Amino acid sequence: MSTTPVPSPSLLPLVIQADHLPAYHAPYPSRHPITKQRINGLPPVGLITKPVLKALEKERALKFFSLAKEIKSCDIKKDGWRVHCGACSECLQKQKQDKNQAAYKLSVLCVFFAEEINEKGKQARTEAMADILNRWKAEGRFPEATKLWMDELFPIYAYPQSRAFKDTKSAARQPLGNVAFEMERAGVPLFGCQAFGVHMTAYEGEGEDMKIWIPRRSADCHRSPLKYDSSVAGGLPAGHTPLEGLLKECEEEAGWPEELIRKYVKSAGMVSYYEIMDDGAILPSTYTYDLPLPPRCSPAYVHPSPNDDEVDSFELLPVQQVIQSLHKDEFKPSSAMVTIDFLVRHGFVTPDNETNYQEIVRRMHRRIDVAGPGI
After folding, report:
1. Residue 99 sits in which domain range?
2. Any idea where the Nudix hydrolase domain is (predicted)?
3. What 3-state DSSP class applies to 82?
4. Is residue 326 located within the same domain as residue 229?
5. Are 15 and 364 contacting, i.e. CB atoms less than 8 angstroms apart?
6. Cβ(284)–Cβ(21) below 8 Å
7. Same domain, 214 and 314
8. CB of 235 within 8 A of CB of 310?
9. Burial of 369 (0-12, 13-18, 19+ CB in 10 A)
C-alpha cells in the first residue's frame, strides 16, 4: 500500500496578512499640474484615500488637479447618479433645452503643493504638512492614525527630477538625497507615503543547526503585543541612513554594541509590500540585514538582552521551531515577512517544499510605484 505524503502548510497566508492589496493599476496624471509638461513615469509622493482628500479641500498649502466631466441624464441610474445614454429622445431633448447649462462632475487626479510653498523649499513643505497634521490631531480627525503620534519625523521622497529639486538637482541624485519634506510618523499612512525601516535577523550556526534570536514584543506595544518580532527592528527617522538607524536600534532593543554590528552585520536587501489600514495605507520598504554572530567562545560574542520597554524577552530558537511559530501566527505581520525572506535566502523555504513559492517571493518584493530614494 502506497501513501501520498502530506504537504506542509503554505506560508502564503502569513505574507497576505501583511501584503493585502490586490494587484491594481490606475493611470497617474500624464501632465504636470503647474508646468503642463508631460510626465514620463513620474511616481507620486503618496496615495491618499477619499476621506483624506475631503479633509484637504480647504487647505491653502495644497492644490487639487481635477478633471471636469459633463454629466448628462436619463432614467438610467448608477451608484445614485442619473447617467446619460446619449441617444434616447429624453436626452436629446434635454440637451437642446440645457445646452448652455451643462452640469459637470470634478474628479481629482492629484494633490500638489501650492507654488508659493514649493518656491520656499523643503522646510516650507515640512512646515505645511506639520500645520495640517497638528490641526487634525487637535480636532480629533483620523484618531486611529493620530493616536500613534510619536513626535518623530520621517523622510518623504520625491522623484529626483521633480521640480522640488530644481535648485538642488545634484544633491537629489546622491544616495538618500531626494527628500522632498519630512512628516510626523503618524501621518505617513494617511498620505500613503513609503515608510522606511530596518529589520535585522541575528543567528548562530549554519544549515540545520542554525538558531535564530527571536524577541517577544512587550505587552505594552500598541501593535502586536506579545508577538514574536525580528531580532532587531525599527522605523528609519529623518536624518538617519539605514546603517545608522540599525546601529541605534541594536543598542536600544538588544544591547548589541556598535563595534559588534559594524564587524559582523551584512546588508541583505529589502522587503516591500502594501499594508492597508482603516485610515490609509502603509507602504513599508524595509532594509534587511543579517547578523551571523561569532562563536560563543569568542570575546566578541554578546548575548542579547532587552534594553528598552518594547522588548519583553529574547529566545534562541531552532529554525524549524521558528517555522512552526510562523504557521501558528505568533509573529507580528511585518516581522513574519522579513523572517520568511530570511528563510528563503538561506534555503529553508524553497520551490521544492513551498507550494506558493513564486507568489511569496513576488509579494515580498512589491513594486510600490510611490517615490522613494533614487529614481
Report:
1. 64-72+89-113
2. 191-339
3. strand
4. yes
5. yes
6. no
7. yes
8. no
9. middle
Please say whether the beta carbons of 252 and 307 come within 8 A: yes
Based on the fold, state whether residues 213 and 340 are members of the same structural domain. yes
Residue 4 domain-assigned? no
In DSSP notation, 230-280 reads -SEEEE--TT--HHHHHHHHHHHHH---HHHHHHH-EEEEEEE--EEETTE
The reply to whether 334 and 250 lie within a common domain is yes
Q: What is the pLDDT of residues 84-134, one digit of tens each?
A: 455 555 555 555 555 555 566 778 888 999 999 999 999 999 999 999 999
* pLDDT tops 60 at residue 74: no
Residue 93 domain-assigned? yes
Structural domain total, the chain: 2
Clarify whether residues 322 and 215 are in a common domain. yes
Classify strands 62-71 and 103-113 as parallel, antiparallel or unpaired. Answer: antiparallel
Query: In one letter, which amino acid is 21?
Result: L
Task: With H, G, I as helix, E, B as strand and everything else as coil, classify residue 56.
Answer: coil
Chain centre to alpha carbon of residue 239: 18
Whether residues 101 and 230 share a domain: the answer is: no
CA 27 to chain centre: 20
- Residues 211 and 68 grouped into a single domain: no
Local structure of residue 31 (DSSP, 8 states): B
Q: How many CB atoms lie within 10 A of CB 271?
A: 25
* Nearest by Cα to 85 from 99, 71, 97, 96: 71
pLDDT digits (tens, 9 = 90+) for 135-178: 999 999 999 899 889 999 999 999 888 878 887 878 888 998 99
- Do 213 and 105 lie in a common domain? no
**Exposure of 57 in the CB half-sphere (CA atoms within 13 A):** 6
**pLDDT value for 4:** 44
Q: DSSP per residue over 142-210, as a string?
A: SHHHHTT--S-EEEEE--TTSGGGTT-HHHHTSTT--EEEEEEGGGTTTTT-EEEEEEEEEEES-GGG-
8 A C-beta contact, residue 107 and residue 66: yes
Q: Answer yes or no: is 203 within a domain.
A: yes
